[in-house]
Amino acid sequence: MITNEKKKKAAVVILLILIASAAFLFYQKEEKEKEEQGILTIYGNVDIRQVELAFFDEGRIKTMLVDEGQVVKAGQLVAEIDPVRLEAEVKRLEAEVETQQQIVNRLHAGSRPQEIKEAAAEVRAAEAALKDARITFQRIKKLAKTQYVSRQRLDDAQARLDQAAASLDAARQRYDLAVIGPRKEDIAAGEARLKSLQAALSHAREKLQDSRLYAPASGIIRDRILEPGDMAFPEKPVYTLALTNPLWVRAFVPEPELGKIQLGMEAEVKTDSFPHTTFRGWVGYISPTAEFTPRNVETPDLRTRLVYQVRIYVCNHDNKMRLGMPATVKILLNRKPKAGDLSPSSICREK
Predict the structure, then answer these.
(1) How far apart are the first and last CA of the chain?
(2) How many CA atoms does the CB half-sphere of 339 hold within 13 Å?
(3) Cβ atoms of residues 338 and 281 within 8 Å
(4) Cα(286)–Cα(290) distance, rounded to whole angstroms?
(5) Contact 110, 256 (CB under 8 A)
(6) pTM score, whole prediction
(7) Which of 185, 248, 274, 281 has the most CB atoms less than 10 A away?
(8) How far, in Å, CA of 302 to CA of 307, rounded?
(9) What does the pLDDT look like over 122-157, one tens digit per residue?
(10) Tens digit of pLDDT for each residue in 60-116?
(11) 80: helix, coil or strand?
């Protein structure tokens, strides 16, 4: 015999089934109406992209200029290592480059007029000495024939004559070198040495520049990993920077719906945090290859379906959207797709 209690339970179950059926039919009807109105609804998350910032050189950290959660702009200085040893190396090389530059300038300038005059005077002096030695030799030679002087004195006079001739030849060589100037090989060697020092100086200056860490793009500091006094290395991150520009929602479109969307189609993006705010968006990327539905997106019975990843770029002027935030995207299929530059910097400036 069926009791009143069992009847009540059966009635409740039937009522719940009817409510669920009505909700399902209402959902199907709503989706059908949206499709008829030219709206494709998809779901996704604001994509999380981050960069690990690290120094290019090693050293002890001197200053950390930003904290976690702080917004930074591209090119902003965020940290610095102690530059004392790097600055000293730059100054040393600057002095060496200046010294070598003066040497090269001297080689290119050649001999000074005073040096050439000095070499010419030495030639004249050598010529005079040679003339005197020749006269002396001739006198002693005549006397040696009459045996008035010894053979030794004649040999000494001959030696002085030969020495004077050699001195004159050497003086003339020095004069010619003074007029011609430095050898081309010496100039080339000096210039090569200068270039080597200039390259070393450029490298030292670059290392000094690398002692300062700059944000490569605009974003938000997620993690501050090191502190002043820590040793920094190229493979050791100092900050983690979350990229916020451009901002896009990563969503997935089932294969049957892929033919309905095109690049540049307008979209409306909403989030649970701001249900009354509609963010302006557009289709900026459609994956050329299919993939299985990610496990964190769909129910188990839909995970084996092939989908295509799409990026819906969003204008986030008020900075309300956050990385990782779930979002509902409505692609306006009946609107004419945008043409030309689809970058956020271009479209988000439009009113």
Answers:
(1) 73
(2) 1
(3) no
(4) 10
(5) no
(6) 0.59
(7) 281
(8) 10
(9) 877 777 787 878 888 787 777 777 767 677 777 777
(10) 999 999 999 899 999 999 999 999 999 999 999 999 999 999 888 877 766 566 666
(11) strand
- Using CA atoms, how far apart are residues 338 and 348, in angstroms rounded to an integer? 13
- φ, ψ for residue 222, nearest 5 deg: -85, -45
How distant, in Å, are the alpha carbons of 104, 194, 243 from that of 189?
Answer: 9, 9, 51
Whole-angstrom distance, CA of residue 35 vs CA of residue 29:
10
Q: CB–CB of 265/337 below 8 Å?
A: yes
Task: Spell out the residues 6+ positions from residue 149 whose beta carbon is closer than 8 angstroms to its own.
Answer: 140, 143
Query: How many angstroms separate the CA atoms of 119 and 177, rounded?
Result: 9
In the structure encoding, which two tokens stand for residue 307, read together?
Answer: 């989908």
Token pair for residue 157?
Answer: 């006079």
Spatial separation of the C-alpha atoms in residues 213 and 328, rounded to whole Å:
38
Measured distance CA(52)–CA(54) in Å, rounded: 6
Q: Is 72 left (phi over 0), alpha (psi -120 to 50) or beta?
A: beta
Domain ranges of the chain: 37-48+244-347, 50-82+213-242, 87-207
Instruction: Determine the distance from the C-alpha atom of residue 13 to the mean position of all C-alpha atoms in its chain, rounded to a whole number.
Output: 66
**Residue position matching structure tokens 């997935």:** 252
Radius of gyration of the chain (CA): 45
According to CATH, the topology of domain 50-82+213-242 is OB fold (Dihydrolipoamide Acetyltransferase, E2P) (2.40.50)
Task: Say if residues 194 and 104 touch (Cβ distance below 8 Å).
Answer: yes
Question: Looking up tokens 């960069």, which residue turns up?
Answer: 51
CA distances from 235 to 52, 54, 328 (A): 10, 7, 39
Give the CATH fold of the 37-48+244-347 domain. Elongation Factor Tu (Ef-tu); domain 3 (2.40.30)
Distance CA 145, CA 153 (A): 12
Strands (E), 126-245: 212-214, 219-224, 231-232, 239-243
CATH topology of domain 87-207: Helix Hairpins (1.10.287)
Residue 153: exposed, middle, or buried by beta-carbon count in 10 A (0-12, 13-18, 19+)? middle
